[in-house]
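Dear colleague,

Thank you for sharing your sequence with our group. We've completed the structure prediction you requested, and as agreed, I am returning the results in plain text so they can be pasted directly into your records. Please verify that the sequence below matches your submission; if there's any discrepancy, let me know and we will rerun it promptly.
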Amino acid sequence: MASIMVVDDNVSVRESLALCLEDFGHVVVRHSSGEDALEALETDVPDLMLLDIMMPGISGLDVLERVVPRFPDLPVIMVSGDGDVADVAKAIRLGTWDYLMKPVTDVEMLRHAVDQALAKASLKRENREYRLRLEKLVNSQNDELRSISDSLRLERQMDGLTGLPNRVLFLDRLDMAVSMTRHNGTMLGLFLCDLDDFSYINGSLGHSVGNEVLVAVGNRLKDFENDGGTVARIGGDEFALILPGIVDRSAVFKTAEDLGKILSEPISMGGQRVDLSMSCGVVIFPDDGDDDDDLLTNAGVALQAAKISGKGSFRLFSQSLSQEAQSYFHVGAHIREAIDLDEFEVYYQPTVNARTGDINGMEALLRWRSSRLGRFVMPDEFIPVAEQLGIIIPLGEWVLRRACSQSLNWLELFPKLRLSVNLSARQFSDPALVSKVEQILQETGFPCGSLDMELTENVFVKSEDRAVEVMNNLVRRGIGISIDDFGTGYSSMAYLKSFPVRRLKIDRSFVSGIPDDKGDLAIAEAVVTLAHSLGKEVVAEGVETAEQMRILGAIGCDVLQGYLFSPPIPHDRFDILLSGGPIRS
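Please find the predicted structure tokens below.
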């Protein structure tokens, strides 16, 4: 149990945080202003302070600037509500231990931040006490005590699970490596890496298996120490690699390739096969930072970009990535409230019968017009953020419910229309997916037989057996399954035999080169032949010219989709489009 001071001028935010902290078992002192907090600190210093950045009078940043020099052992977590990157950056420079974004709705995230801050503060006090003990040991010139000191120091600096250097020793090694590299005039590479989907491993296989996976990964990464590098475990599933003495950037790319190979072999844990991948952000000294702090900050930016790019990605830092990180921060700060503000819209793009030119369906596509950001946010900008923040599941449910509700009137006039709705990998892995889809269809009255769920090939990588089970459950209810962007992902033909797929969608990258690119045309023909031999329908995406329409129809594509017919349009404009009859070139 710890004593925690919560300082926020907003009574609802203050009480919400305080009640959560009291539920965690802590004693909470509440203050509504920076002035009250500073006065209280004169008589009683808590174990932890949660401090609002923006307050009338003395702001949170002003309080932080006064508190850090006077109470260096007091951990402060800043709570930011407006998503201002400059304020957060200033708070970090002034010495905040962590920061949280309002509204703080994720109780586990709050618990984790508080526990981490208290643990770090405790470790800091222990380190100070340790240094005092160490000085006495040195002064005593007692060889036996010196030996004990060395043993304790090693224990403090090594990760107890993997046997690798921990964050403390890693930071010390990084400082030495930067100094040595600056003196030698060479370059240094710093890799920050996260295991992909480690929380899924812990949740599905248990924490003991998760620990075994971390040990196995640590053992594989130790191979890089043979080249003079330092490998460390610096967080839960986060590892770091310092690669000194490199002559050019090719060594960095070679190391990234080797990292991928090292983790490509699955791990067997108690009869369970665990497939691994790791996302890495990389910086090079002196190009990407002047000191340790710059390198770590920019490596974190690159790691975030790698995770957004997809599992197993490797990203080298650049200034454009820094701008992307700011954009990610701003989008993430507002996307949670966008549903409540009714800022999301469902647009529809028609699919067309390649033989008759009739509209035979529509794909539901999500769009976001943000009032806070003052612009139209594109899907490739906000969908990865929604994935990372874990809100893609409720967002996907909203899209399905809205699309089914809006499409019902169209089905009454055109009963053969089919509605296509995309499923993300995160949604597909939701154990309650089938029941949620069934509930939405019952609530809206939308017929199961008129719905197609579109999946990309990559959702099958984690577990083919589970993928088959989920798709069979959907198909038994009359729902069709489409493979989107076919040929760009997993690309295993074997699954086409075992998966109950109704429709393949040829990716637009293979359509755009037709008729000039003979390779694209050959791929399209091969997909049509394969799909038809297995009794599956073929859709060609990205059709933009009459010539492409003619050729794709001639090679046997069943359905066409693209800007030649219509871009994605809002619900009311799709009403008008449907009343126009067949679409011709």
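Summary note from our side: The CA atoms of residues 309 and 384 lie 8 Å apart.

Kind regards,
the structure core
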